[in-house]
Design a protein that fits this description.
This protein is an alpha+beta fold. 49% of the residues lie in helices and 13% in strands.
Length: 127
């Protein structure tokens, strides 16, 4: 009888996830078996608060001095609330990923190349 060695893949070796950042869904991950979406519900709430902040800042210029001060205080509180929600979302995702996976693959995220448009002309007198 010839002994044959079999490779046994343990779950520890399979604990790898590749992440893809997005706009509507904060992160999408693929672990070899399934896709996972992180922050899908949180982004909707953050967008709703941001649109409320935009509308509030649009009304600030038309307000009286007393109203303007109150609106600016409310806008400051909204910004803090949005920042806290984003931080909470980040921390929850990081906590989950580090507890479930041994290796986390992140792509290079070069926003400067995403923003640049070729042959773009701004402030031309054509308008």
């Amino acid at each position: 009888c010839i002994p044959v060695t079999e490779e046994v893949r343990t779950k520890e070796l399979d604990q790898v996830i590749a992440l893809d950042p997005g706009v509507r869904t904060f992160l999408t991950g693929y672990d070899g078996d399934s896709f996972q979406e992180f922050g899908k519900a949180d982004i909707g709430r953050i967008q709703r608060l941001c649109s409320h902040l935009d509308k509030l800042m649009g009304r600030v210029s038309k307000a009286s001095r007393k109203q303007k001060r109150r609106m600016l205080e409310a806008a400051s509180k909204l910004r803090i609330r949005i920042r806290d929600l984003v931080d909470e979302c980040h921390k929850q995702v990081v906590n989950y990923l580090t507890s479930q996976y041994k290796v986390i693959l992140l792509p290079t995220f070069e926003t400067s190349q995403m923003v640049v448009k070729s042959k773009r002309k701004l402030r031309t007198p054509d308008c």
